[in-house]
């Protein structure tokens, strides 16, 4: 056909506009806001908190509203310095939150088009790839976890830049790659930039190893038959070798699972199993091993007199990564400073790496949209009937659907043995990332345990499947289900990878690879490469399979509904609806059958009427994705975000009647739902979620409304601060068991009560219903003693009407507010001290004993006559190294009522205190001790001492003194200088690249004109 760029461009961007309107019409036209998962309670208030500092002309450095203070710039999800957030500065905040998401959806689409056009794909192929990538379930659903949408939006441009450097030697591409890596990192998704760098390195090694074979443009019909390398992987003996390797891997893994637990040290009572001794050294060992492999590889190449192409490619990629690090240093250094002090970097007790693993059977969702049913409007999902583990799977994206027609085209182009090298590269990326996204489900340990549960055939000594609510290290000393799998290998062999979470995030790379392969598949078909009948036959086979499954589904309807009715799949979306679930699957199969049938017609038409086929293919994919995935976008009216939360109103009224002496904190237990949600369906459960969580100030809803939270859960928490608040089981004494109406000795989830007292907690927002007191998110027993109920008011008389109101409150609202009678002030004075050994690293050694001494208060639940009770209002625990410096201020004077400290926070990064002391002493401030804080006393610089393991202490003389804390992190200053230097270097490199834009490589072809007609367009 003739080259006509206007037609495909017009249709292509028309499809984009229609899909954006269908998916996002409520936020664009109905004054709605994104409301599901983290989009509502996490990112909306967090980004607003950042913008408030910008609006007041301050660097957003510190957030005092959570966890007794934590870095804001150092929080990777805050994306403080990401340039894309200028949207929030030029628009009203509510509109900024909407446009920020839509802009990145549009960026993902445009970037995918640019990537495909750089590979000489036709406009139709580029459009199919862009639609499939941008509006696939795993990408589109990231609107509710915006940092991962940012990473996905920039990813195609990063792949484009890496390809043009490796394939064409373009220096401009290196600058582009550095820019993309920087944008992903600043946008809050450093894992995407990490994985992009790994993919680029693999591509470079593959191309250099094969001498560039397979990089020629796909201009001839027989190019597909060209091997991607000179190696003949089709030799028959390779397959037995691969099978033997798999068998060895399975046997060795299972034997290690049987023997390794014997090397663990003994487990302390009621504590998680200690890790294997070598685990703390595994990341360092992996880094050394990779370094030795690289050196060996380079030495061998030199001895073999190979060309230096790989070294040049590697140097270019390293230079791009270094430039990206320099450009992001102002944010990255504070992030590293923070994350290295969190539980993610703990030497023992590593964080769980397996949540949100993709169950392998969910791959059918790529072919059949929402085949297991849906949530949101009702509980019509039956996926949990397929139980691959005792742990209920967490859903990262409700659907993996990217279009069954797209899957046909992608399978047609998939190749790991022959074809253009970038096609082989994408195919390998798809395989590796798909397997990696399975998380724990690629481990032989999991498979063997599942077989034992299903058939009774077991491998001796490896144990059963992970128990529900398993710790990162099992209590029974055995290995986890996922240990020994592909994601486990990535986490242990790749330096730093273990600090990332959620295997499902690898699906972003899978979606990009499949979408790109689908574009190639369309062009291959239109050019007549290979046999067209094979592609049509594949689509017809999938159509036949779909129709067959649909027929069986209809034929077995009574039996299926009976099994559904027996299922107990209740969730927060309400009771399981068997009829709706059956209907969702039926609709899924009907939609897939229609799409495949139309797809067969489109493919059959492509040879005779390519222009019509192009239009039909774009329209088919757009309609398919719109029908399947538009329901992923959950919103609520913007007015719900603007209303004052109910809990804040109640606390304000309580404070009006009984005001506190100074600032105070609130502890809101992190996660629970009203019981009624599990028993009654709702027409809009997402709205219910948002309204109830907003009303009960689930973090972070209150951070912009004057609320300071004692302890919240987010991306990461300071490791030493977490020691104060981790729950552990305790047995109820006879007296306390009677108080909470349980049997003596009943297990209770106990939160160290003194922790909350010491950290200035005045109010507890906790469930009304305790469950069985053992669940950490409902076990509020610790907060009952020495507290008074503020809301709902206690029953004065136990009349039937009062009891009915109480039951209704528990069922439908399920929260209560308690006021702590034992709250410590925000700051106080002590004249005594106990010294403790200084803490080093992030190991348990040196922490357990001292923290137990600090936290023990002899309350009704934790009462041990063998332990001593120390009063933190009379003494402070100080580091041994500070003993001499504080000797003159800890002479043991008794506390005096005339001594007081007033605390004021002009803004987040500044604390002003007026201290009145009768004798020299230590002023303890219940804010976290963290590097970067400076102190002046009466205008003179003074040292900040670490007291009580995580609080700030100041040595103050007698009299009235003015103390001022300011947050001036050296990491930000140093990072800022590096970033400025990086910007300067970037300017010089731009000038240099303009002069010499390319580095000739042995295989580099002439750089094609991206606007020239492709073979498919030229006909």
Short description:
By secondary structure, this protein is an alpha+beta fold.
Strand line-up in the sheet with most strands: 16-17-23-19-20
| Share of helical residues | 40-55%
Question: N- to C-terminal separation?
Answer: 5 Å
Characterize the overall form.
globular
What gyration radius follows from the Cα positions, in whole Å? 31 Å
InterPro entries: Uncharacterised_YfhO
Protein name: Bacterial membrane protein YfhO
Transmembrane segments: 6-29, 99-119, 139-160, 172-188, 194-216, 236-258, 278-300, 312-333, 395-415, 422-441, 502-522, 534-555, 588-606, 972-995
Keywords: Membrane, Transmembrane, Transmembrane helix
Description:
By secondary structure, the protein is of the alpha+beta class. Among the domains are: 354-633, no CATH class; 644-820, no CATH class; 828-968, no CATH class. A hairpin with a 5-residue loop joins strand 4 (373-374) and strand 5 (380-381).
What's the helix and strand layout?
Elements: H1 6-29, E1 32-34, H2 38-55, E2 62-63, E3 70-71, H3 86-90, H4 93-118, H5 123-134, H6 137-140, H7 146-168, H8 171-186, H9 190-209, H10 238-259, H11 282-303, H12 309-339, E4 373-374, E5 380-381, H13 404-413, H14 421-437, H15 444-455, H16 486-493, H17 507-527, H18 532-555, H19 557-566, H20 578-606, H21 610-629, E6 635-637, H22 639-642, H23 646-657, E7 665-668, H24 676-679, H25 685-695, H26 719-725, E8 728-731, H27 734-740, E9 747-750, H28 753-758, E10 761-766, E11 787-791, H29 800-812, E12 816-820, E13 827-830, E14 832-836, H30 848-855, E15 875-879, E16 900-907, E17 910-917, E18 921-928, E19 933-937, E20 940-942, E21 945-947, E22 951-956, E23 959-967, H31 970-995, H32 1015-1018
Parallel strand pairs: 7-10, 14-15
Antiparallel strand pairs: 1-6, 2-3, 4-5, 8-9, 10-12, 11-12, 13-18, 16-17, 17-23, 18-22, 19-20, 19-23, 21-22
Helix pairs in contact: 1-4, 1-5, 1-21, 4-5, 4-7, 5-17, 5-21, 7-8, 7-9, 8-9, 8-12, 9-12, 9-14, 12-31, 13-17, 13-18, 14-17, 18-20, 19-20, 20-21
